[in-house]
Design brief:
It is found in: Cell inner membrane. One of its GO terms (molecular function) is kinase activity. It is an enzyme of class 2 (transferase). By secondary structure, the chain is α+β, with helices and mostly antiparallel strands. The protein has two domains: about 140 residues, Beta-Lactamase (2-Layer Sandwich), CATH 3.30.450; about 160 residues, Alpha-Beta Plaits (2-Layer Sandwich). The strands form three sheets. A five-stranded antiparallel beta sheet has the order 2-1-5-4-3. A five-stranded mixed beta sheet has the order 7-8-6-11-12, sandwiched between helices. The protein has a two-stranded antiparallel ribbon with strand order 9-10. The longest helix has 21 residues.
Amino acid sequence: MAGMDLNEFHWLLAIVQSIDVGVVVLDREYRVEVWNSFMENRSGRTAHDAVQKSFFSLFPEVEEPWFRHKVESVVTLGTPAFTIWEQRPYLVRFKNYQPITGQEEFMYQNTTILPLQATNSVVEHVCLIIYDVTNVAVNKHQLQSANDQLKHLSRTDRLTGLNNRGHWEEELKREYSRHRRYGSTAALVMFDIDHFKKVNDTYGHQAGDKVIQAVADVVRKEARDTDIAGRYGGEEFVILLPDVDSAGARLFAERLRQKTEALQVDYDGQLIPFTISLGVADLTQSSNDHQQLIEWADHALYQSKRNGRNQVSVHGA
């Protein structure tokens, strides 16, 4: 404060009290010496209650070894240190009272730790500045959430909620690359709804949509987390089964067939029975690209159609 008269010192204190950031000055024993209005309002403790108290007793949530190390580095190097909310959401836990961002329980914070040199150039105090960045954090979280939703929508079939053709075909390409590199196996089950045009013509397109959604629900229940289920188009579906051969895929397909046959979709009081025909292919045979697996499964599906529908056929069997 050298060169400043008493009035200037009062001005400085007035500024520290009025700014919308937390200002805390700590001595080398981590005792509080300055505690501004921001800290009073957010903590519920007056300066009288806080001054000369240990920072760690006031805020037991602070990770003491980490904070001490941070402060000692500031003292030793004589340079400021910073924390940001993305790495550490807050230093001290204050409730969030902002109405716009009321969904957040606590105040997100950035902090600065400044070395304060005495007239003899020795750092005897540090100043902790706490910034409320809750709005920034909330906006970033909302943006991330919106991006995640857009990403999900870009790969999802709107009617069924399963993967759309673009996404599951990318997954098939990836699985095929894994097969070429590591010799892993994978199977593809392709199926469609038997006489689906008749369902639409008899009951209407909304009923047809309900049938497609009911089939998608069965697929979701039967598929493993690692399986990639998707809509091929219209009433046709595919399920990619990583690390499964045609025998395992046939069992899976037969289970789907039985579960679907047992379904009866209720539409406007009318029960709509229906069945599916399925084709299975795997990568145990020599193949040129991922498209070949689609072709093989498609051929097997049409074999099921030719043989009377409501059955499973395996390519090459």
